[in-house]
Structure formats: structure tokens, C-alpha cells
Amino acid sequence: MTAEHKKRGTLFTPGNIIAGIILAAGLVVTVMRFTMGLGSVTNLSDNNPWGIWIGFDLLCGVALAAGGYTTSAACYIFGFKRFHAAVRPAILTAFLGYALVVFALHFDVGRPWRLVYPIFYQQGTTSVLFEVGLCVFIYLTVLFLEYLPAALEWLGGFDKYRGILIKVTMVLTILGVILSTLHQSSLGALYLIAPSKLHPLWYTPYLPLMFFLSSMFAGLSMVIFEGTLSHRNFHHKMDDEYNTNYETLQIAFARGSAWIMAGYLAMKLLGLAMDNRWHYLFTGFGVWWLFEVIGFVALPCYCYAVGYRDKNLGLIRLAAPWTVIGIVLNRFDVSLVAFNWRLPSVDRYFPSVGEIIISLFVVTVGVLVFRFIVTRMPIFYTHPAYKDSSH
Amino acid sequence: MRRRQFLKILGLGGVAGAALPGTAGAARFAYDGSPDAVGVLHDSVRCIGCRKCEAACNKVNELPKPAKPLDDLSVLDTTRRTHADAYTIVNKYFPEPGKNPVFRKIQCNHCMEPACASACFVHAFKKSETGAVVYDPTVCVGCRYCMVACPFNIPAYEYHKALTPRVMKCTLCQPRLLEGKLPGCVEACPKEALQYGKRRDLLNIAWDRIGANPGRYVEHVYGEREMGGTSWIYLAPKPSFAALGFDEHLGDTSAPELTSGALAAVPAVAGVWPVLLGGIYAITKRKEKIAEEEKKAAVDAAIAKASADAEAKLSEELAKAEVANKRRIEVEVKKALEAAHKEAEGGEDA
User: Which of A114, A205, A365, A384 sits at 20 to 30 Å (Cα–Cα) from A1?
Assistant: First the structure.
């Protein structure tokens, strides 16, 4: 309960004050959205039906929550048991990430109470979005079940249910990988239907595969990045197991990330070669493409590789947020910058203040809930009563 | 479109595309819709830009009156697109500077294989038997993926409705068609720039007109093949369709075909992944087990060796001790014998 005391004493920290302002502004925009319509708070238009609530909240949210399936697969399927202590933080981040994606969608779609229609009422099975929706819905449930043991240990008295959940860990992990493969790639496949709208440098039949591959190193990088941040803020909550393996994990994930990023780079080039699109590189969009691919994939990939070789944690911790920014840049490019590239600039989209406020609002809610949970539940440490558990 | 037919075509296209990448194009026109499906032919050579079609559309669909009256031709000076209050609009272009303007009418093209219907995750769009692509607002969630998917930028959204926004687009006047009437715009056209009929017949009429007026028309019927074909088809005067703002980058591939490959991967992933991951897990487990066993064997061997060594040493020591004991006994016996001997000798002496 010392944490409680400390919190009460320092409620008005700069961080909390900023969070409070964002929450208040978010509530105002929320009220406007649901009383005056999307048009009153967004810059969305008939030509630009998807803005940053899709480009950032959905596409980036899902990609950056990929740490859940990558870490649990590494630990439980590929046998990296040393990383066991990192699974719970990664699962929690993923669960909150997906929950917030769904939360944010309630702002974006016209009639949010119908979000369950495609699953329970009338299925549009020819739609890639149907696949995304179904997978996200099931995966959110899977992540909840994977996270639940921590909550049950905290509450106490649910050992029977906790035991069942621990027993099906393997099934949930495999299910998580299948569902993630499907919807991570399908988010890219969403854009396959609009070859005339997406710039040829970004439009390739490999788009689903690229989204899937990039989700892997996005997830690994988020685990490294988030681990570094958590270490700074929640160090007192971490037990020896977490702390001992923490650096080994960062080095191993840096290695994995470097390899996958190299493969992703190769695929980017193959995409250009396959359709002979090299000449686009000498246009304005080409410069931007090179900025994304060299500046935010090749360079951080190199840093990861060198960081792994020299066991240089500083370099690895630099490459992680760099890669994360690269993922955000890529999703923005596909969904906003390179989308509708043929339209005259007056018809192009730029987010409104209201849209940015809601996106910040969603992220802030996520950070606050994360803090609430890790300061109370056994996330960074093993619960003393469940020392023997392998989960 | 009939769902079963649609799915069949989707499957065929996918298989053909996968098996014969070089000839996939040949399979693209396998589907020509319901045989009696109707459409409209718009001829930009005949169109005079009077906006009577816009006015009729506004009236029959009971749309709100626009700020500028529907017969105000100054509206044509700006390039517009369809929006929630206007299912159709007419734009003015000057393909050849100094010559007369040419007009183009824009509305839903009622694709043969609609991108919106393929993209909708709640099946709110349907290609009906008449040929009209119709929308059902009672199930629409408002995700607006149809607007992302539509290659012609047609569907519009009611962004200013807080709780009941709908996607808005031309219905081909489906309710009027079912009553046996013409679409509102076609009925209002004073110049027969709009012609209604079966799509098959309209295509013949269009090509006949191109042939009958050499040098007048672009030798292409827009919509015959674009995105798999559309129910609305167009004729344009020379020099080009692009000069009238038509998108010439669309290609012939229909929207469902573009995503069928990705969707076909779903069962593959769902089927292969568990086996593959289960296999990897089994291999990992087995490696661990073998490592465990090898470790155990090594430990056992070490213990066995140690105990064997110890045993050997013990027996050696025992043997040594036995020899030493024997010797000691022998010495003692010898000593005793000698003592007895001495005693006997001493006794004799005494």
C-alpha cells in the first residue's frame, strides 16, 4: 500500500496534470462527436472517409500491440523460457492495445452500437474487413483470457479458474498466433481493393505479407521500448527473475528484429522489382518512400544488428523507439499520405484538432489503465502465493 | 448479383489466377451479370449540360434543395463530386481550348461486380437482378470501407448526422424501375444524351454510334470493361476520356478479384499454422526432453563411475587390509610360538 500513499501525495505531478487536460478535452470532443456528428469534429470527407482514427488508432494500435503474440510465442512455442517474465507485461500491453482499438472505433464508425452486426447479425464474408473484425473480436477475447490469471491472482480466491486458464496457455498462444497472422496481414489487404487510389510504391500484392512481417518487428520493438520505459517508472515492482533476464531479452529481441527487418527490406525491393516500379523513386513520393524505408527500416535494422553483435544495450534501446516511429510512419503512408495521391491537394486530408485530441485521449486512457494495473497486479513480478506456477 | 453466382465467379477467378498467372486476364469477363440487367448509356457528345438530370434526381429522391438553384448553370464552373445531398452531378470540361465545352455526368456506375458490395462487412450492398446496386441502411455500421473501396469515388456519407448517418448514392431509381418507370435522370434528359436499356443492347448501340460517326468519338466504351464492367457506360468525343476527368488507371480487374487471393489465404493460415506451430512446439519439447535425458544419462554415468571407482578402491583397501592383517597375525603367531619355545627351553634349564 506504499504505492497508494505515494500516489496520493503526488497527485499533481506534471504528468498527471497533462493527462487530466487531455482527458477533459477528450470528453468535450466525445460529447461533440455524439451530438453533432463526425463532421463537427473531424476533417473526414467523401473523398477521405478514413483519417487518423483508422490510420493511427486502428492500424498503428494493432501493429504496436503485436508484442503479445510475438513474446508469448517465443516463450511458450519456441522454448525461450528465459523470457517468461516478459510475457505478462507484453500480454497486458497487447490486451490494452486491442481494447483501445475497439474503443477508438466507437468514435469512428457512424453507428457504433452496430459494431457487433457483422459478427452476429449479417456477415459480409466477401469483405477483408469482415475477416479483420472477426479476428480482432476473437483475439481480444483470447488476450483477455491470457491476461486474466494476473487479475485473478490479485483478487484471490479464484484458484480453480486460474488453474484452468494456465492449463490452456498453449492453446491460447497458438490461437493468438493464428489470429494475429490473419488480421495483421488483412489490415494490409484492406488496401488491395483500391489499386487506383494507393501510390504504386506502396501498393503491391505483397501488402498483406508486409503488414504481417512489420507487425512482428513492431511487436518486438515495442517490448524492448516499453520494457525500457517500465524499468524507469516501475522498477520497484519488478522481481529478480524479471530483472535478471531483462537485458538478455532485449538483446535477443534486437537480434530477431534485425533479421525480420532485413527480410522486410528485401520484400520492399522485390515489390518494386516485380512490377518494375523503380522509376517512381525519382519522384517526390519516391523521396518520401526512401525516407521511410532507409530512414526508418534500414537504419534501425543496422543499429539492432550492431547492437546485438556488440551487446550494446544503448544502441538497441535507441533502435527500438526508432523502429516504432517507422511503423507509425509506414501505416500513415499507406492509409493517408500515399492514399488518394492522385487527388488535387485541396481534396487531400489533414487531421483536425478534434481527431488529434481523441487519438491522444485514447493513448492517455491506455497509459493510465496500464499504470493502474501494474501497480496493483502481479505483472512485473510473480505473485508470492503462485511462485510454483510456470505461467 | 446472385450470391451463389458471385461466389462461384470469385472462386473461379481465384483458381484461374493462381494456376495460370499469365492468362488470368482471359477469365475476367466470365461474369456478365444477370442477362436482363439494365444500364444507362451517357453520350457526352449529345450532353448540353442543362442540369435537368440533376434536378430530376433531386426531386424523385426527395433530397434537400441545394443553396444554388438546380437550373443555375454557374454551378458548372467548379468541378464537383457526388455527395450526400446530390446523387448525380454534371461537370464541365474544355478538352480542346477555344472549342465548346463537353459535359460529363457522374453518379454510381452500378458495377457488374461492385467494390462496395465486396468490401461491405455487413453485406449492406447488393447487386440486384435489375442491375442496380442497392444499399440497406438498416444494417450499415458506418465503417465507410465502401467509400475507400469504390474506384469511382461515388458513395458519400452523412457526416453531419450524429446518430443515424447513412451512406448516400444513386440507386439507379430501383423503386421506379420496379414500378416499370424510367430512372428520373433518363426521363428528364431533353437531348437523349441518356439512354436506358439492357446493358447488352446499350453496348451494341454505343459501338454502332462510334462506327457511324468516324472521327467523332473516342474508340472506347468506358465501363465496358473497367473494374470488371459497369452498368452505366459512356461515350466521349475525341481526344480522350481522361480530358473529361475519367480515371483511365483502373484496369479491368474487378474489385472482388483484387482481394480474393488474400481471403483465400485465410483457411490456409488457419489450417497450416496450428500444425506448424504444434510441430515447432513438439520439436522444442523433444529437444528439451532429449537434453534432459542426456543430462540425466551423463549424471548417472558420472555417479556410476564414481561409485565404481569408490568400490574398487574399497575392495583394494580391504584386500590390502586383509594382507596386512594376515601378516600381523602371522607375526603374532610367530611371536607366540617363539615365546613358548623360549619358555620351554627356560623350563628345561631351570
Answer: A365
User: Cβ–Cβ of B265/A185 closer than 8 Å?
Assistant: yes
CB contact at 8 A, B190 and B71? no
**Which of A111, A177, A210 to mutate against chain B (most B CBs within 10 Å)?**
A111
Cβ atoms of B93 and B101 closer than 8 Å: yes
Q: Is B141 in contact with A115 (Cβ distance < 8 A)?
A: yes
**Is residue B305 over pLDDT 50?**
yes
The answer to whether B10 contacts chain A (CB < 8 Å) is: yes
How many whole angstroms separate alpha carbon A292 and alpha carbon A288? 6
Does the structure show a pLDDT above 50 at A148?
Answer: yes
Asked whether residue B249 carries a pLDDT value surpassing 60, the answer given is yes
Q: Count of CB atoms within 10 A of residue A32's CB?
A: 15
Closest by CA position to A26, among listed A263, A316, A280, A367 = A367
How, if at all, do strands B38-43 and B232-235 pair?
parallel
- Residue A74 is classified by DSSP as I
The cell numbers describing A325, all together, are 516511429
Q: pLDDT digit string (tens) for B194-237?
A: 999 999 999 999 999 999 999 899 999 999 999 999 999 999 99
Angle (CA) A197 B9 B246, round 5°: 30
Distance CA A355, CA A55 (A): 11
Cα-based distances in Å from A67 to A56, A133, A178, A381, B176? 17, 20, 14, 18, 55
pLDDT at B13: 44
**Partner residue facing A110 (CB), from B141, B149, B263:** B141
Distance from CA of B316 to the nearest CA of A (A): 47
pLDDT at A2: 42
pLDDT score at B6:
53
State the average pLDDT over residues A304-317: 92
Are the C-beta atoms of B199 and B231 separated by less than 8 Å? yes
With CB atoms and an 8 Å threshold, state whether B162 touches A117: no
Backbone angles phi, psi at B212, to 5 degrees: -80, -15
Cα dihedral across residues A218, A219, A220, A224: positive or negative: positive
What ipTM does this complex have? 0.89
Residue from the list A114, A127, A177 with its beta carbon closest to the beta carbon of B119? A127
Q: What is the DSSP letter of A349?
A: -
Residue B222 contacts A where some CB pair is shorter than 8 Å: no
Residues A327, A330, A333, CA angle at the centre, nearest 5°? Answer: 150
Contact B140/A114, CB-based, under 8 Å?
yes
Q: Mean pLDDT across the stretch B67-91?
A: 91
The answer to whether B342 touches B350, Cβ cutoff 8 Å, is: no
Residue range A12-27: mean pLDDT, rounded = 90
Confirm or reject contact between B141 and chain A (CB < 8 A). Answer: yes
pLDDT (average), residues B84-110:
93
Report the gap between the CA of A37 and the closest CA in chain B (Å).
4
Whether the pLDDT of residue A318 is over 80: the answer is yes
* CA–CA separation, A207 and A211 (whole Å): 6
- Per-residue pLDDT band for A242 (boundaries 50, 70, 90) equals confident
| pLDDT tier at B12, thresholds 50, 70, 90 | very low
Report the pLDDT value the prediction gives residue B2, as an integer from 0 to 100: 55
Dist CA B46 CA B52 (whole Å): 14
Question: Are the Cβ atoms of A122 and B83 closer than 8 angstroms?
Answer: no
B contacts of A127 (beta carbons < 8 Å) = 118-121, 145
B5 pLDDT exceeds 80? Answer: no
As to burial, measured by CB atoms within 10 angstroms (0-12 exposed, 13-18 middle, 19+ buried), residue A263 is: middle
Which residues does chain A have within 8 Å of residue B10's beta carbon, measured at their own beta carbons? 126
